[in-house]
Write a structure and sequence with these properties.
514 residues; alpha/beta; Rossmann fold; 13 helices; binds alpha-D-glucopyranuronic acid
Length: 514
């Protein structure tokens, strides 16, 4: 029974945020799947790969199921040494990290794992479409609906408009820190007409209806007190707060933070079919991508950095204190953003799994072979497929052949505060994500934090020796932080830990305006 529940939870984890694919017609889904397969096949051809090992299944009852045996989980000798250059030189100063080793890691991650930014990415022009003054609980906020229009003059048939919503509390002294979150932008509590304004709205509406259909006059006369247009339930200032944690956004506002939600799909679609559209398609003029250029994760990170360009121009925002957050595939994107876009000051990396904080080399839960399949490879650089190849012009490769691993990606964030968050399998943050592999990577990344004079988890950096602590253990004393909460596939239960931790490192203290 337990097994069935876990399997169910894995499937939910696997399927839930498929970015609207649930809401597609079956024809649309079929056509996306066919294009996914075509793009994947053509990337294999470009790389001269004739066969890939199949992805592992989360179903323990099928032959090719994922490994959950710790004894089989670490097949490669060692992780690449973060403090030794490719030529074997030892890195012992911050300066040589910045000048020699870090650029090597960036180069390898871009070329082999996430793909490079092309040279000719066009400009983005931000436009504030709506500015609304609202209340969330008793907090007055200003909300800006923003659209970042990408210059498509070089290829007008592809349009890219990045959607972002900025929400800033106005009861505190600004400029405020902002957490940018990958998600769906929406107005928290749209301001509405007053009762008096509602009356004139209803009056005009009734007149218009009667003009359109005179029979409406009798109807309205029959119900003289009826108002066809009603107000949405507004904020109830006297409602007691819900039991448990407030929503993430409300916790941020209450702490004097702003937040921005940025919509990944408005930057780049979440499937390979979309690789000939979105920002990747626009730059490529609708052609397929080459093996070393950006995949969706790198493109989402690029989009986040464009969002930050806007935030730098907004006087309500302290652009030196902008963080990045995401969960699951967007947790991967958040880590890629923090690692490769260095103006982001802090990161909350939620349940990111393989392709995120978890070691590629670990064979536990989701495997590299799952990310090299047609359903997920658009997240990565085409070159990443090589590490799932069983037959090709270069023979076969596995994750052990990768020049880098996720401890290096976390290290690229150093010394900036980086919070690695997970939940527990019993609540739906499936073992598929390999929490332990992420803990190992976080432990191993610590050497770089230390080298740069920042604090890591406060353990040794021996990733094979250090033991992952039980859930709900705070490892929050360092710039590098770890916490596995007792909830599911979300970082929500960790927000109340993230905020004070981030305040401490960013030096932010909320000052309420009286
Ligand atoms: C699947 C996938 C993960 C991904 C997750 C998500 O579980 O295997 O790599 O993070 O979906 O929902 O984003």
């Amino acid at each position: 029974m337990k097994r069935i529940v876990c399997l169910f939870l894995v499937c939910v984890t696997m399927l839930s945020p498929l970015n609207g694919q649930f809401f597609m017609s079956s024809e649309e889904r079929d056509s996306i799947n066919t294009l996914n397969q075509q793009n994947h096949a053509s990337m294999m051809k470009q790389l001269e790969i004739t066969a890939l090992r199949p992805g592992r299944s989360p179903n323990p009852d099928v032959p090719n199921h994922a490994n959950y045996d710790e004894l089989l989980a670490n097949p490669c000798a060692e992780l690449p040494d973060l403090l030794t250059t490719k030529k074997g030189k030892e890195i012992s100063t911050a300066e040589s990290w910045w000048k020699e080793r870090r650029p090597e890691l960036v180069e390898d991650f871009e070329r082999e794992v996430y793909g490079r930014l092309p040279n000719n990415v066009p400009e983005v022009k931000w436009n504030i479409e709506v500015t609304d003054r609202e209340f969330v609980r008793r907090i007055p906020i200003v909300v800006k609906k923003l659209v970042g229009k990408v210059d498509n003059s070089a290829f007008p048939s592809i349009e890219v408009n990045i959607n972002m919503m900025l929400v800033v509390p106005t009861n505190v002294k600004g400029p405020v820190p902002v957490l940018m979150m990958f998600g769906r932008p929406s107005f928290p509590a749209p301001a509405q007409p007053s009762r008096k304004e509602m009356e004139s709205l209803n009056k005009s509406f009734k007149e218009m209806m009667i003009q359109y259909d005179p029979a409406m006059k009798t109807l309205f006369e029959k119900y003289p007190a009826y108002s066809p247009i009603t107000r949405l339930p507004g904020p109830n200032f006297f409602a007691p707060p819900p039991e448990g944690d407030l929503p993430t956004t409300e916790q941020l506002l209450a702490a004097g933070w702003g937040y921005a939600t940025i919509e990944p799909a408005s930057i780049q679609a979440d499937n390979s079919a979309g690789l000939t559209s979105g920002i990747i398609g626009l730059v490529n003029k609708g052609q397929e991508r080459k093996p070393e250029v950006w995949g969706a994760l790198r493109a989402w990170a690029w989009g986040a950095a464009r969002g930050l360009d806007y935030l730098e121009t907004d006087t309500l925002v302290d652009a030196n204190k902008v963080g990045i957050e995401g969960v699951s595939r967007y947790g991967k994107a958040a880590l890629v953003t923090l690692a490769l876009e260095s103006r982001f000051a802090v990161g909350l990396i939620g349940s990111s799994g393989k392709g995120g904080a978890t070691l590629h080399r670990r064979v536990f839960g989701e495997a590299v072979e799952n990310l090299t399949g047609a359903g997920a490879s658009h997240w990565m650089a085409g070159n990443y497929l090589k590490y799932g190849a069983s037959a090709s012009s270069f023979g076969s490769k596995t994750a052990c052949d990768l020049p880098v691993d996720s401890h290096g990606l976390i290290a690229l964030c150093a010394p900036r505060p980086t919070f690695i968050s997970y939940g527990i399998p019993e609540k739906g943050d499936a073992l598929w994500l390999d929490q332990k592999g992420s803990f190992m990577a976080t432990v191993a990344a610590g050497v770089v934090y230390k080298l740069l004079g920042a604090k890591d988890l406060g353990l040794s950096n021996d990733y094979l020796k250090e033991i992952m602590p039980p859930y709900n253990t705070d490892m929050l004393d360092g710039h590098l932080a770890w916490r596995q909460h007792d909830g599911g596939h979300t970082d929500w239960p960790n927000i109340k830990h993230f905020i004070p931790w981030a305040n401490q490192w960013l030096g932010y203290e909320k000052q309420v305006i009286r």
